[in-house]
Structure formats: C-alpha cells, structure tokens
Amino acid sequence: MANSYLTSESKRLATWYFTFAAIIFGAQLLFGLVAATQYVMPSFLFEVVDFSVARMIHINALIVWMVFAMFGSVYWLLPDETGIETVGIGLGKLLFWAFAAAIVVVVLVYLFIQVGPADETSIWFIHEGREYIEAPRWADFAIVVVVLGFISNLYLTGMKGNRSGIVTVLMADMIAFAGIYLAGMFFTDNVSVDQFWWWWVIHLWVEATWEVFVGSLAAYGLITMIGAHRKVVEMWLWIEVAMLFGSGILGMGHHYFWIGTPEYWWEIGALFSALEPLPLVAMFIHVLYDWGKMQGEEDAKGKEHSVITNKPAFTWFILNAFGNFLGAGIWGFFHTLPQVNLYTHGTQFTSAHGHLAFFGAYATILIGMMYLGVQGKNGIKVMNHTKSSIWATCMIFGGVLGMTMALTVAGYADFIISRAQWGATWEGYFAGQGGIWYAQGMGWRLIMGVITFTGFLFLVKDLLSTGKAANHVR
Which of 163, 193, 217 is the last residue of a domain? Predict the structure, then answer.
C-alpha cells in the first residue's frame, strides 16, 4: 500500500504525540508501582516521594498521556477522513511543544516542591488539590489554549475537506471536550458546590465526551483494518453517540448521592447509571459483528485469509470493546446504585472500577492507534503479531485484570468491615485496613502491577522494533 506517512505532516505530528504519550504512560505505571509498594511497605521512599505525591503523579499522568494520544489519533486519521492535509499543522507542532513543556514543568513541581503556603500562590503555581485535575491554575489555562488550537485545526480541516460522519462526530465532541473542562477551573469555598462542578469534569468530560471519542476511533479502526462498510459503521456510531449522551448526562447523578445535593438525584442517578452499560454492549457487538461480517464476505469468495490488516492494533480494539463493557459497564454498575454505594463509596472497590474502566475504555484503543501509526510509518500492508506484541498484550491486560480482582477483594473486605460492621467510623477504617483479605489484596495488586509494567516494557520494545520485523507483508 502507499505509505501516506511519507507525505503527510499531520501523520508525522501524530507520531510525536504518540511518542510523548508512551513516555507519560510509562511514568504513570512507574509511579503507580511506587504507590502500590507504599501500601505494602509504608516506609518506602518516605520523605523522598511520599504516597500523596506518587498517587498524584500516577493519576494525573493517566489523564495527560491519554489526551496526548487522543490528539495524536485525530491528527493521524484526519488526512484519511478528509482527503486533505490538516490545516494549521504549524500551529499543531507549536502547541505540541508548548503542551509537552508545560507537563514536564508540572511534574517537576509535583516532585520537588509538592506543597505550598495554602493560599492563592499554591493554587496558581503548585497544584489545586483536586483529584485527577490537580494541575496548577497556570497549567489549566495553558491546557485550554492548547485544546482550542487543536480544535481550530480540526474544524478548519473538517470544513475544507470531505467531512465524513466520523469527523463530524469528532468536531461536535471536541467542543464538549473543551467546554466541560472549564467546569473544573474555578474555586468555591463550599465543598458540596465544588464537588458538584468537579464531577462535571470527571464524569461528563471523561465518561461522556471521551466515550464518544472512543466510538469515533472504533469506527475509523474498523474501516481501516478490516474494510468495514462506512455507512454501516457510521450508523452504529450515531446510535452509540445517542445512547452515550442519553445515559451519561443524567447518569452523572450517581456521583451526587453523598455531597449534599437534593435527594431526587438518588432516583435519577440510579436509573440512568443502570442504562450506561447499554451503549458499551452496543459497541462490543458492533466491533464483533463487523469483523465477522467482513470475514464472512471474504470466506464466501473462497479467499482463505484474514481480513485484518493490523493484527496487534485490532487485538487492542477488541480488548477495548470488551474492557470498556467490563470495566466501565459491569464494574461501574456494581456499585453505583445508592443502596450499594452507601457502603462501597471511597473504598478499594471504587479503585478497582477506576483501574479497569480507564484501561479498558481508553488505554486499549489508544495503544491500538499507536500500532496503526507504526504500520503507516513503515509502509506495512499487513502487520502481524510478534512475540513482543503477544507478551505485551497478555501481560498488560492480564496485569490490569489481576489488579482489578485484587482491589475488588480488598474493597470487599474494606466495606464489609469498615462500613457495614463498624459504621464508617475511624475505628472501622483502621480495622478494615488491618484485615487479612485487605492486606493480601494490596500485595497481589503490587504483584499484578509489576506484571503490567513488565508488559509495558515489551510494548515499548515492540513499538520501536516491529516496523523492521520480517513477518509483516509489505
């Protein structure tokens, strides 16, 4: 096939974003290992990298590397979907370096300064103290500028080129992507009000706009890797978008149970949270159906070969469909009903859901997009698995699934002892922390974290070397 990477500045820029995303992904896993070790050995790196700092970098790096990979994914697919080079590519390059430099500065501040005088200086130059969005205020504004520049490139390209259904969805979604983030940029002294707006970012930003983004990538991947029919794929995409927004917006109410909001959020949040797994089921069926349909058409022609042109990427796309449904859908639904959430809220059960949901819903498909980038960069017609890609896939997915199970067991001990038996008292908290199931769960979480990080090393090795492997069809 023609190597469009050679002539596309947009695709070259995409590989920059993918590369930096992979670096931050490694940092996220590394600091996650530090935090997991400190659960088992509390004195580990004491007063060097304390648990609060390791956890902060672990969580925020998660958001950052995914945003970089998302931007890279859009820059990769835009020339294919619009038929033209991305408009404003020079601005895109400038914003990449500005964004990367800002992230490096923020991480260095987290590591070496960590705390401030607890006034406006801290909020502006150290961190805001909000979980997942702890970037200092100056970085918040920098992120907004970068995102607006990215959106301008997307819109100018979409309006100038042949705008497909996928690009149309992305254009609409990115407006929500930028707008909802603003809800976490102002401060209020009222904790309930502050949490109300904070959940707009954590739920509507991450669980709604990101999910729609994933649907767009899934549609592009199916067309690119198995030659799925565009009209069918885009029909599914619009259905999933309607279902995601229909359930996701009011489903946000399941975060409002315990922060002082009116009691009607109990019923609203419970009902629409119960509906949230449905679009994830649709996405899972969508991917498997299109794969089977296209393979069946080839088999009917007497062609005994796989329709998949990038097996590593397609594996990650399949894992996304499965992991999204399992982590965001099933594990999320496990504890969003208020009758259950009364006991599970803030326990390790929440952590189990968070690990599998973020990984299953987003990391998987973004890794798949990185493999599409490697394929295009090296002019590979059919990319096959290598030993490293198989080890990476098995160890990363198995490790995250293992961490989820370990955290689920620890969470069960946590809420049974500290919540159900002891009534959410301080004594109950420490009794839960000292339980044997809890301690063993934390130990197994660490072991599975090591496996996941080892898988990441195999992934990096494969992404760097598979372009020269001899088992691909060129």
Answer: 163
User: Torsions phi, psi of 310, nearest 5?
Assistant: -145, 90
φ/ψ (deg, to 5) at 473: -100, 125
* Cα separation, 141 vs 135, whole angstroms: 10
Look up residue 263 and give its two tokens.
């009691």
The dihedral formed by the CA atoms of 139, 144, 148 and 151, expressed in degrees to the nearest 10: 100
Tens-digit pLDDT profile for residues 374-431: 999 999 999 999 999 999 999 999 999 999 999 999 998 888 888 888 888 888 888 8
Could you tell me if residue 321 is inside a domain? no
Closest CA to 255 of 195, 182, 305, 325: 195
User: Biggest alpha carbon distance in the chain?
Assistant: 72
For the beta carbon of residue 38, count every other beta carbon within 10 angstroms.
21
- DSSP assignments along 284-304, one per residue: HHHHHHHHHHHHHHHHHTT--
pTM: 0.94
Token look-up 């090393």 returns 457
Angle, helices 264-275/277-300, rounded to nearest 10 degrees: 10
Last residue within a domain, chosen from 115, 133, 163: 163
Q: Which of 371, 358, 275, 376 is nearest to 320 (CA)?
A: 358
CA distance 27 to 164: 36
Distances from the Cα of 364 to the Cαs of 144, 312, 419, in angstroms? 26, 11, 34
Average pLDDT, the chain: 89
* Structural domain span for residue 417: 328-474
Calpha distance 237→255 (Å, rounded): 27
How far apart are the C-alpha atoms of 391 and 455, rounded to whole Å? 7
Structure tokens at 380: 């590979």
Number of compact structural domains in the chain:
2
Tell the residue number behind the tokens 């992120």, with chain if given.
143
